[in-house]
């Protein structure tokens, strides 16, 4: 069955998903987008050849509605959409924090809702998208959401109770790695390297480490031990990281991200 999919509120994440779906072979005639600003709608039309419509038109025309506005804008979007969404539409939320019950309470009784937390590597087909169904989502609805998000990377189903933790780990996760690269590039400058060289060294070390983590089947501890020679350089660095509480800082940071996701649950911000 051909399914028309609309991305509503096509900002950074919405565009990443849209571009991935087109790369993955979706016909642009099966895709719709909505945007708040007319210039943005025009930009998306020009860049991808997709039709840009109003939120109400998208609700009528598409079988699957993917809502990618900020959590704080979701209540307003649902107020606008609710009168136009028949109960047989699949509603997919990409927003942090907001539970499926928030949508179910505002849409026609029985509307299936799937919650997905993806991340920006969707732009390079390396997303991690974590998927949970609401109370009316069937196996078919979850499989359809997986089909869409598998096009931009990996997917994983979790109980909805784990979504705030997933948001802290993989949703926000890329930002932590960019932060580390930024900090380590500064260290390279302190050690006398030009910024561009420091950046290239750290980025390639990150890519190499990421591929080994994914493909070697080894535990991260084993991989780190293989780098850490007796009386060598690495152990001096590790001692500093432990001394500065970096492990504890990361645990606290992810806990704070999880807590913020919980706070966003009301859609008020
Ligand atoms: N940026 C990220 O790394 C990730 C973001 N998310 C979630 O994705 C959602 C979007 O985040 P971003 O793409 O970063 O934000 P963004 O601000 O780039 O995109 C949101 C877009 O929605 C539009 N919008 C707001 N209200 C609208 C309405 N009523 N009708 C049509 N368009 C409307 C805005 O103009 C904006 O272009 C958020 O809910 C966030 O929690 C999830 C995973 C990762
Ligand atoms: O920072 C945020 O709220 C969004 C959700 C996960 C990543 N970015």
UniProtKB/TrEMBL annotation:
Documented EC number(s): 1.5.1.2
Residue ranges of every copy of the Pyrroline-5-carboxylate reductase dimerisation domain listed in the record: 160-264
Keyword terms of this UniProt record: Amino-acid biosynthesis, Cytoplasm, NADP, Oxidoreductase, Proline biosynthesis
Domain of life according to the entry: Bacteria
UniProt subcellular location: Cytoplasm
PANTHER family, per the entry: PYRROLINE-5-CARBOXYLATE REDUCTASE (PTHR11645), PYRROLINE-5-CARBOXYLATE REDUCTASE 3 (PTHR11645:SF0)
UniProt function note: Catalyzes the reduction of 1-pyrroline-5-carboxylate (PCA) to L-proline.
Protein name: Pyrroline-5-carboxylate reductase
Organism: Streptomyces lycii
